[in-house]
Design goal:
CATH topology of the largest domain: Dihydrodipicolinate Reductase, domain 2
Helix content: 25-40%
CATH class of the largest domain: Alpha Beta
Number of helices: 9
CATH architecture of the largest domain: 2-Layer Sandwich
Order of helices and strands: EHEHEHEHEHEHEHEEEEEEEHHE
Strand order of the largest sheet: 14-13-12-11-7-10-9-8-15
Distance between the termini: 70 Å
Largest sheet: 9 strands, mixed
Shape: globular
Length: 348
């Protein structure tokens, strides 16, 4: 029986307490939060848990085998590092840390201690995203040209991180998972209307090898809630709408170019293909509960998680590069150097 401690009982922490409490082979033995009212609310619903206001007190007592960190992003590195140093397995909500340097240190430490470092990229455990990856792997969509996503809503507004760090990790993690590669460069622009220096709206472009592209639009100033990801292949296209009953629709639509350069002009006209559409069967399950179960399985079996520390590092690399681009006026940033790329030279 794996003993679980939940750190942070704000917006997301109670959901984690619920999911882990519903799973076999584990027991939520302790919860930790600086807000005493949050502790009382959880204690009222789960009388057997041990409430603590101090993370140090949790570490000093033999109460847990693993911790789940659902605190503000700025605290992720310190809390995760201290837990790993006490030989605890760690599930940390996205993003793993604020910088690639911090992420590398956590990956190194988890390897040295032989502990499971698991990052909460919950959509990589969602059945529709797994189905999308299957469609891509089977070549049903053909060669992927680009992926675009919209993650919009009116709030909740954050004061500790911008919309890029708050919302974009979901879409970045999905794009890296679906394309199975990291981008070579990124560009990002946005604006800060509510709090100077904290961008409320961001547009991010990821440039992948083979001329493939990802586009991410995130905002907490939009009148409508949207959670849509579109995958455009040269054979078919697929749309994942997380708010719809049928999560995925595959469209037999596309543009066909002439196959040769011979003949008269009429033969060179682009042909538009308007086929039918269908929704593939998906065995639905709650993504968060599936994610929690996968964390437990990886601990028990010693397996490397799909969303391990390296996966978390890759997402933060993109975020860090996007942040550099955002503060340099939207100039492209190479992921290897994290420096804005020079403008292209114009030759006669």
């Amino acid at each position: 029986m794996i003993r679980i401690g939940i750190i942070g009982l704000g917006y997301w922490g109670p959901n984690l307490v619920r999911c882990f409490s519903d799973l076999d082979d584990c027991k939520v033995t302790a919860v930790c939060d600086q807000n005493y009212d949050h502790l009382l609310q959880i204690k009222d619903r789960y009388p057997s848990v041990y409430p603590l206001e101090s993370f140090d007190a949790l570490l000093d007592r033999d109460l847990v085998d693993a911790v789940v960190i659902a605190t503000p992003t700025a605290s992720h590195f310190d809390l995760t590092r201290r837990a790993l140093e006490r030989d605890l397995h760690v599930f940390v909500e996205k993003p793993l840390a604020e910088s690639t340097e911090q992420c590398r240190e956590l990956v190194r430490l988890a390897g040295e201690r032989n502990r499971c470092l698991f990052v909460g990229h919950v959509f990589l455990h969602a059945s529709p995203v797994i189905k999308l990856r299957e469609l891509i792997a089977s070549d049903e969509l053909g060669k992927i040209n680009y992926i675009s996503s919209r993650r919009l809503n009116l709030g909740p507004v954050r004061s500790d991180v911008n919309a890029l760090y708050d919302l974009a990790p979901h879409d970045i993690s999905m794009m890296l998972y679906l394309l199975d590669q990291s981008p070579t460069s990124v560009t990002c622009c946005g604006f800060d209307r509510l709090h100077p220096g904290i961008h409320d709206v961001c547009n991010l472009t990821l440039n992948f090898p083979d001329k493939r592209m990802g586009m991410v639009h995130v905002s907490w100033l939009d009148p409508r809630k949207e959670r849509v990801l579109t995958v455009v292949g040269d054979k078919k296209m697929a749309v994942y709408d997380d708010l719809e009953q049928e999560k995925i629709k595959v469209f037999d639509k596309g543009i066909d170019r002439p196959s040769s350069a011979t003949g008269d002009f009429a033969e060179f006209q682009i042909a538009y293909r308007y086929g039918g559409s269908y929704s593939p069967f998906i065995q639905e399950q709650e993504p968060l509960k599936a994610e929690c179960g996968e964390f437990l399985r990886c601990i028990a079996e010693g397996d490397l998680p799909r969303t391990d520390g390296t996966n978390g590092l890759q997402v933060v690399q993109v975020l860090e590069a996007a942040q550099v681009s955002l503060h340099s006026g939207g100039h492209p940033v190479c992921l290897q150097t994290l420096q804005p790329l020079p403008p292209p030279t114009v030759t006669a």
